[in-house]
Amino acid sequence: MNRTVSFGLLAGLVALLAVAVWIVVDGVGDGPDARTHVRAGLSAAEALAGSDTAGFARAMAPRPFEFPRDHGPHPDYRTEWWYLTGNLESDGGRPFGFQLTFFRSALSPTAPDRPSAWNTNQLWMAHFALTDIEAGSHIVGERFARGAAGLAGGQAEPFRVWLHDWEIRGLDDSGAFPMVLEVEQEGVELRLELDEGKGPVPQGIDGWSQKGPEPGNASYYLSWTRMPTRGHVTIGGDRHTLRGNAWMDREWSTSALGEANTGWDWFSLQLDDGREVMFFELRRDDGEPDPMNHGSLVGVDGEARRLGAGDVTLEVLDRWESPVDGALYPARWRMQIPDEELDLTITPRVADQEMVVSFRYWEGAVTVDGTSGSGPVGGLGYVELTGYAEDGGTRGAGSGSE
Predict the structure, then answer these.
(1) What is d(CA 93, CA 9) in angstroms, rounded to the nearest whole number?
(2) In this structure, which CATH number among 2.40.370.10, 3.20.20.450, 3.40.50.970, 1.10.10.10 belongs to the domain 3-29+38-112+119-385?
(3) Residues 297-330: pLDDT tens digits?
């Protein structure tokens, strides 16, 4: 059995090629009443179950990237995402974390031949989370829409990706940066402007990130690892001016997780010495390290060194139990990169940053403390954990779909 997967994260690798499994279009009627339906109660095993990928483009080898074209969607591939996370702080020193992710998933290689403004083979999902670290709260939203009639979509020129009134867009028509992010959810209003900073950093081999040994079991994967960010958030009726750094992952693929894999852990760390670390660990059911695990260490100058499976060791130091069903997630880690003399302890800034949405996972802000060579090093980052919860996690899901 093949298991389809995406990597974030989220992201990353989050999340979630499985969206195409658990969203289906009625296929009857047109207009706003021909809705997209979300199947409730989906297990992780079902979400990772394989589906037909015949006719879709595959990531077979490294390729050149072209901008602005590659800021926009790649509809020939099964799935794609724009994954933004960041740690921000108000003028008064109040810390926040945020995640906004747009997922595009194709149900078929081509759209049905049907004369309708609602006709499409593209489905979109968006996840939003704001972690108010001082309050210890984690606000989550989820939305779905078909990629038709202006409900959701993406474009390269001028750059824009949206689902209803959630969006990221270029500040002007000249490109994707500076980028504007706007979201409103459950009394929270977030507006940010993000500069390009470092990037794009090609992950894997020149941006070709292998997820398994089979031909085409790979993605095209780029990261912007330190994006200077400013803006504001309104929460609880109070407005806070924010500054900090964000991280963006761009990935598209028609990929599959191996039979032995049960999920993945993804780390994006921004060290206070100006370097960044990305690493993802594919978890195997036999407990052995997966040879496809990889990442990168990005220098102050933006140059990236590829990290292979043998270059990084991860040790779980603590666990957190979900109040939803008792699922156990890792909650503190030791990461060692011996060749770089890095020995890091990674700790969630809030314990409960579980994304209780249609496909349940943990995605949250973390702190970093440790040593680099003979000196101390700290930092902030984000971690994504999938495959730990077995139910569909539909309780607490956000607003609806069209």
Answers:
(1) 27
(2) 2.40.370.10
(3) 999 999 999 999 999 999 999 999 999 999 999 9
